[in-house]
Amino acid sequence: MEVGGWWRAARALRAASDGWWRMAVPGAGVAATASRSFCAGGVPSLSYQELKELKKTNVLHIDVRERSEIDRFGKIPESVNIPLGELVEALQMDPVKFKEQYNQKMPSKSDPVVFSCLSGTRSKKAIGFATSLGFNRVQQYAGGFEDWIKHEPPEKK
Prior knowledge:
The chain is of the alpha/beta class.
């Protein structure tokens, strides 16, 4: 990624205060906006309940933790594991190769994508990478796996 690209992406995300998720989550309106939390840098973060609702739609949920973390602790159901170190390459793959490697349809740059990790640090970086590649409907579940397991058990491999 070019120097400064991440910062441009972060500024663009901050400027876009009305996230795409309001259109994707049924019933998300002014009240949902008021309850939505923000992590450092102004990136909107989904709550557990918002993620549960989004997962009922065609959103792609990418867990950017390492494979060893998934193997050891499990994963959020219906998420696909693409470790952060592979993400930029994966998001630029040929769609057929992406499908073969991750068993998911390659997202277009306008498809909704949610990133998560253990607690929000890597998913925030993933948003920066994806935005710098032109993806414009990205969101994060900043509570990550740590928050998810407070609400329900993980999916084991």
